């Protein structure tokens, strides 16, 4: 088995190192790390097209595997890893373990999840794994769970165009209440911008605020974490709202409306 | 009506200027432009949390409205515009007009579309508009169509959690065959990385390649453009694959599989 590991916290983050150690413990696993050379969180699904990507092979240590640091985003790392660095296509891509949750609305902004999205676009089964805390982090259980889930995926297969987004509570294995399959909850960002002045008196803004919990029902990932459960959410790549296609078709849109192109304009 | 315009080609791009001129022609419209200070295409849904956002109000010209240039991404511009710069919440957000198509798989990478996604997350009806060519561009019809479609949206309402992604063929109004409501096609990037050497002999990579057309059926946006039609695609924000939730639930995932956490591992 060839596995590609990446993240958005950067190649030196503890989360990806724990993941690497866990996969190196799997007999027969060839482990490649292709990750950003620095933190790229909140990078969403951005890719680098306006400047070149540089690759630095870093010492993978005694444990083995190969590790490459890239001056790009998580999506860049997956593209470059699969298409230019790995000797053959990996069987699975694991992104993480993220420092902090990727629950509900977070998924839109998450570099960790976007790496898995890129894997799915390339046709490779992919998962994103996050530990839902920012301090006193122990990644060891989450790393073992990622290895276990990867085994299940390779044995059973994943539906097309679907990644698994996994969030793990920051608890020891004995304290975790179990695993549950969830839908994404809703916890958009509050979007408070702090107004500050720079040393030359010029106004600037800095994004502050916290996540607002708008949907944490027991069938959501947000609710699962509250209940000390590991959440596994299938995230699909079909962005078309198929129901709305027929609704909109009844609008009778035209390039030449009766009273000219601004008919009905506000 | 208060309208917020943004894009990913930067505030000085011809596409957003054409859009602004068209909306300024709508009686009673208050037009705000909040856009990146430079090109931010392929920025996906990235947001800026690690450095501050600076705002430069630029001369909006005699035509009126107000324009702000931001050192951030399209999603940043929408957040900051709505939450800190505009006097009240806009009725509609229009992102574009993008130089080049945003069809099918492009949607994942598009800063233009991500601005509309951010608008929907904030609960504001939002559309993304792109002209499907890179040269000899005349944005005037696309701008008029954006004004017309905005009027329809304000009159009829949009379903929750759904934006409209509009692509316009690079033709004069008389040559355009009509308007059609579509689903997203598939045209992933070919992902060829050119291997080059810098002046000091060090290897680097630069993303090249073209879009591969994998699904351009007549009901897709890709197919519509081939037929000289304006495509209007409803794009939703529900990323949960609800069908797969029940499928995965049958896997019986556990934190304590019989043979230890690596049971079933490859």
Structure characterization notes:
2 copies of one chain form a homodimer. Chain A is α/β, with parallel strands linked by helices and 266 residues long. The first copy, chain A, has a single domain (2-185, 216-249), classed as Survival protein SurE-like phosphatase/nucleotidase (Stationary-phase Survival Protein Sure Homolog, Chain: A), CATH 3.40.1210.10. In chain A, 24% of the residues lie in helices and 26% in strands. The first copy, chain A, contains 6 helices and 11 strands. In chain A, the strands form 2 sheets. A 9-stranded mixed sheet of chain A has the order 3-4-2-1-5-6-7-11-8, sandwiched between helices. Chain A has a two-stranded antiparallel ribbon with strand order 9-10. In chain A, helix 1 packs across helix 4 and helix 2 packs parallel to helix 3. The termini of chain A are far apart. The model of chain A is unreliable at 258-266 (pLDDT under 50). Chains A and B meet through strand 3, helix 2, helix 3, helix 4 and strand 8 of A and strand 3, helix 2, helix 3, helix 4 and strand 8 of B. Strand 3 of chain A pairs antiparallel with strand 10 (203-208) of chain B, so a sheet runs across the interface.
């Amino acid at each position: 088995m060839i596995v590609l590991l990446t993240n958005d916290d950067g190649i030196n983050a503890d989360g990806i190192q724990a993941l690497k150690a866990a996969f190196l413990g799997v007999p027969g696993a060839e482990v490649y790390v292709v990750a950003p050379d620095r933190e790229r969180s909140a990078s969403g699904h951005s890719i680098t097209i306006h400047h070149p990507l540089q690759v630095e092979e870093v010492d993978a240590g005694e444990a083995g595997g190969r590790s490459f640091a890239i001056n790009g985003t998580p999506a860049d790392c997956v593209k470059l890893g699969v298409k230019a660095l790995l000797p053959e296509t990996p069987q699975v891509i694991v992104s993480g373990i993220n420092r902090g949750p990727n629950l509900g609305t977070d998924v839109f902004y998450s570099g960790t999840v976007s790496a898995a999205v890129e894997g799915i676009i390339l046709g490779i089964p992919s998962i994103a794994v996050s530990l839902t805390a920012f301090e006193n982090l122990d990644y060891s259980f989450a790393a073992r769970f990622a290895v276990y889930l990867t085994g299940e995926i390779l044995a059973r297969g994943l539906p097309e165009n679907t990644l698994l987004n996994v969030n793990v509570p920051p608890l020891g294995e004995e304290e975790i209440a179990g695993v549950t399959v969830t839908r994404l909850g809703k916890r958009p960002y509050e979007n408070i911008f702090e107004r500050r002045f720079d040393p030359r008196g010029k106004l600037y803004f800095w994004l502050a605020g916290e996540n607002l919990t708008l949907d944490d029902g027991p069938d959501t990932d947000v609710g699962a974490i509250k209940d000390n459960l590991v959440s596994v959410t299938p995230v699909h790549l079909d962005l078309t709202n198929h129901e709305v296609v027929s609704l909109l078709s009844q609008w009778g849109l035209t390039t030449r409306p009766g009273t000219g192109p601004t008919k009905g304009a506000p």
